[in-house]
Amino acid sequence: MAYNLLKGKRGIIFGALDEKSIAWKTAERVHEEGGTFVLTNAPIALRMGSINKLAEKTNSKVIPADATSIEDLEKLVDEAVKELGGKIDFVLHSIGMSINVRKGKHYTDQNYDWTAKGWDVSAGSFHKTMQVLYKKDAMNAWGSIVALTYMAAQRVFPDYNDMADNKAYLESIARSFGYFFGRDKKVRVNTISQSPTPTTAGQGVKGFDGFIAYAEKMSPLGNATAQECADYTITMFSDLTKKVTLQNLYHDGGFSNMGVSDGVMEAFVQENE
Question: How far apart, in Å, do the first and last CA atoms of the chain sit?
Answer without folding.
Answer: 48
